[in-house]
């Protein structure tokens, strides 16, 4: 469903601030994979997600989604393949519009607009049922402006909007980082439910080792623009924080006492 071949990206080339962010990334995701991505600041996690989404072009290598080479496609054209949820709860929704209006925009993504009513009765019934699944009471507040919702409610709504039309690939860029622990746990619970229900191919970037271990069927660890660990299957199921830190030390060649700092 996703294939990266020898993907490289360097920022500020030829200046004192030159930074090699991605160093020949090779990666394949099968359909239905739920991959968590972990690493320290500057490891290349968000850069990789932004490269896949088309926020910026890569310097070398190729990116394919469901067999389609997307290197030449700008961000707005890749949106037909990708659903995204960002770290900032303020992104991904239109704050001045109601919940049902935001969902209507998401449902019409990539479709031609007409002069028919914006939200039909059938759509409203569908939105009610989809919102009810979130367990946040939003199904009874569909005309409320999204800007009045809490951060957790907005992230849950953004997740629903990103998956209302099943994307080929779902990208979650630290989508719980700005939330308090209890709300983050609820959003992750909803994430797991939505991903499993729709059998979505998913990449979730996180700084939290516990989240990375608990969720998904595969874990990637990045360091200095490279994937240094790729863990799946029984090894992933039996992962612990201590084992993960030990593996990071072996792969990255750093002292174990610095691991928690690099991965925090």
In words, what does this structure look like?
- With 264 residues, the protein is α/β, with parallel strands linked by helices.
- A hairpin with a 2-residue loop joins strand 9 and strand 10 (226-232).
- Strands 6-7-8-3-9-10 form a six-stranded mixed beta sheet, sandwiched between helices.
- The chain has a single domain (2-95, 150-263), classed as Rossmann fold.
- It has ten helices and ten strands.
Structure, briefly:
This protein has a single domain, classed as 3-Layer(aba) Sandwich (Rossmann fold), CATH 3.40.50.300. It is built from ten helices and ten strands.
Number of separate structural domains: 1
CATH class assignment: Alpha Beta
CATH topology: Rossmann fold
CATH homologous superfamily?
A: P-loop containing nucleotide triphosphate hydrolases
Intertermini distance: 30 Å
* Architecture (CATH level 2) name: 3-Layer(aba) Sandwich
Element-level helix/strand string: EEEHEEHEHHHEHEHEEHHH
How many helix segments?
10
Structural class: alpha/beta
Task: Provide the gyration radius in Å.
Answer: 19 Å
Enumerate the spans where pLDDT stays under 50 for 5 or more consecutive residues: none
Query: What is the helical fraction, as a range of percent?
Result: 25-40%
Mean pLDDT: 89
| Shape, per Cα inertia axes | globular
- What is the percentage of strand-forming residues? 15-25%
Largest sheet: 6 strands, mixed
> What strand line-up does the widest sheet have?
6-7-8-3-9-10
Number of strands: 10
């Amino acid at each position: 469903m996703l294939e990266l071949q020898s993907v490289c990206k360097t920022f500020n080339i030829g200046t004192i601030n030159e930074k090699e962010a991605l160093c020949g990334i090779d990666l394949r995701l099968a359909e239905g994979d739920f991959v968590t991505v972990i690493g320290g600041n500057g490891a290349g996690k968000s850069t990789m997600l932004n490269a896949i989404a088309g926020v910026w072009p890569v310097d070398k290598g190729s990116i394919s989604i469901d067999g389609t080479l997307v290197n030449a496609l700008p961000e707005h054209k890749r949106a037909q393949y990708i659903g995204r949820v960002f770290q900032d709860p303020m992104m991904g929704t239109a704050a001045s519009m109601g919940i049902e209006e935001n969902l209507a925009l998401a449902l019409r993504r990539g479709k031609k607009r007409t002069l028919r009513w914006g939200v039909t009765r059938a759509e409203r019934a569908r939105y009610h049922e989809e919102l009810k699944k979130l367990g946040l009471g939003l199904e009874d507040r569909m005309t409320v402006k999204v800007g009045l919702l809490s951060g957790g409610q907005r992230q849950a709504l953004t997740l629903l909007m990103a998956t209302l039309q099943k994307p080929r690939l779902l990208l979650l860029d630290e989508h719980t980082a700005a939330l308090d622990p209890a709300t983050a746990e609820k959003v992750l619970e909803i994430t797991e439910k939505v991903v499993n229900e729709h059998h979505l191919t998913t990449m979730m970037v996180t700084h939290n080792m516990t989240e990375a271990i608990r969720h998904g069927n595969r874990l990637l660890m990045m360091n200095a623009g490279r994937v240094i660990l790729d863990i799946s299957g029984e090894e992933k199921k039996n992962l612990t924080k201590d084992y993960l830190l030990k593996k990071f030390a072996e792969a990255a060649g750093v002292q174990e006492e610095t691991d928690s700092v690099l991965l925090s």
